[in-house]
């Protein structure tokens, strides 16, 4: 992955707007967070292959970035995006890696279901 | 260490075998005992992507599959089985079906020893669910046909509740292979492996103890 370039990511978000897409959205602090620090409240969520259409989307902030996708009936939101990649299947992969390089958040948009 | 007929290792993630068990696996293989490693998932949801990140959420399974195969090669495991479950979802599988699936592998390999996680004391929900499914599958067997089950436990409360490990294997003789197995999981262990080698050079007692002594709790059915 490369450090996120706002203009490039925005172009990709625009390319995938107004068509049926599959979304992978995830936040994670890892399964061991409360094991290493019992005062840490562990939480996380992911949804893989949610099928939706967004009418427009935006990447904002000075980095780490925020991304919001506006749908007819709601929103998709991710915060802490640091890296991006358009892979060989033309999928937009956005990820946020924490200060030690571990994945903390992911938002991925594809025209075909993720495996 | 007792000579076994066949050892069956059952863990949910590539690299679960590396830290706590790879020395013991090496000793069994040196003993001429065949080892089967059944790994439920490909660690698809791992957080380590390399720094700077060389893996993505989508390439990680493929990378970790190759790392797992490399670790098996380093250790001399001939029979590596990837069961196709998905990371972080093992606890949500149908428990009976999962136990049956493992039961088939147990039946086929007929191990004298199974190594898995101690259900309830292994921190990650996939670890606990895998251990529970193994115990359930072994319980299905008549008592005199059951293999021994050695469990790995490391939750903060484990010694308080289940006491001290009753099996402690000194694996210092195969430490090189253990380190190689850990390093094979490069995407996950890159940073850690470097620190570890440094600590071993400095002979830090805590690290050496963790590295050279592999601890197991025999499951009491």
Automatic annotation (TrEMBL), chain A:
<dbReference type="InterPro" id="IPR036492">
    <property type="entry name" value="YojF_sf"/>
</dbReference>
<dbReference type="Pfam" id="PF08830">
    <property type="entry name" value="DUF1806"/>
</dbReference>
<dbReference type="InterPro" id="IPR014934">
    <property type="entry name" value="DUF1806"/>
</dbReference>
<protein>
    <submittedName>
        <fullName>Uncharacterized protein DUF1806</fullName>
    </submittedName>
</protein>
Automatic annotation (TrEMBL), chain B:
<dbReference type="InterPro" id="IPR023841">
    <property type="entry name" value="BshB2"/>
</dbReference>
<protein>
    <submittedName>
        <fullName>Bacillithiol biosynthesis deacetylase BshB2</fullName>
    </submittedName>
</protein>
<dbReference type="InterPro" id="IPR024078">
    <property type="entry name" value="LmbE-like_dom_sf"/>
</dbReference>
<dbReference type="GO" id="GO:0016811">
    <property type="term" value="F:hydrolase activity, acting on carbon-nitrogen (but not peptide) bonds, in linear amides"/>
</dbReference>
<dbReference type="Pfam" id="PF02585">
    <property type="entry name" value="PIG-L"/>
</dbReference>
<dbReference type="InterPro" id="IPR003737">
    <property type="entry name" value="GlcNAc_PI_deacetylase-related"/>
</dbReference>
């Amino acid at each position: 992955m490369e450090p996120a370039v706002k203009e490039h990511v925005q172009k990709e978000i625009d390319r995938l707007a107004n068509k049926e897409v599959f979304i992978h959205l995830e936040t994670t602090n890892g399964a061991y967070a409360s094991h290493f620090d019992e005062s840490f409240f562990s939480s996380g969520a992911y949804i893989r292959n949610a099928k939706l259409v967004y009418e427009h989307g935006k990447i904002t902030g000075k980095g780490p970035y925020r991304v919001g996708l506006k749908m007819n009936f709601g929103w998709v939101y991710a915060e802490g995006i640091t890296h991006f990649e358009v892979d060989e299947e033309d999928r937009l992969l956005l990820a946020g890696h924490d200060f030690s390089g571990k994945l903390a958040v992911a938002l991925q948009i594809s025209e075909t279901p993720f495996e | 260490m007792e000579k076994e007929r066949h050892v069956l290792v059952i863990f949910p993630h590539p690299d679960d075998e590396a830290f706590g068990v790879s020395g013991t696996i090496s000793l069994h293989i040196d003993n001429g005992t065949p080892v089967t490693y059944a790994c439920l998932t490909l660690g698809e949801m791992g957080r380590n992507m390399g720094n700077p990140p060389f893996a993505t959420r989508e390439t990680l399974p493929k990378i970790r599959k190759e790392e797992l195969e490399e670790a098996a090669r380093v250790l001399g495991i001939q029979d590596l089985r990837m069961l196709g479950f998905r990371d972080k979802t093992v606890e949500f599988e149908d428990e009976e079906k999962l136990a049956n699936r493992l039961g088939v592998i147990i039946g086929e390999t007929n191990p004298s020893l199974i190594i898995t996680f101690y259900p309830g004391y292994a921190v990650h929900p996939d670890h606990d669910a895998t251990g529970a499914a193994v115990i359930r599958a072994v319980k299905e067997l008549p008592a005199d046909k059951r293999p021994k089950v050695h469990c790995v436990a490391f939750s903060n409360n484990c010694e308080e509740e289940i006491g001290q490990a009753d099996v402690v294997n000194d694996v210092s003789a195969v430490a090189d292979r253990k380190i190689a197995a850990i390093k094979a999981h490069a995407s996950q262990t890159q940073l850690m492996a470097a620190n570890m080698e440094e600590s071993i050079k400095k002979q830090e007692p805590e690290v050496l103890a963790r590295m050279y002594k592999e601890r197991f709790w025999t499951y009491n059915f």
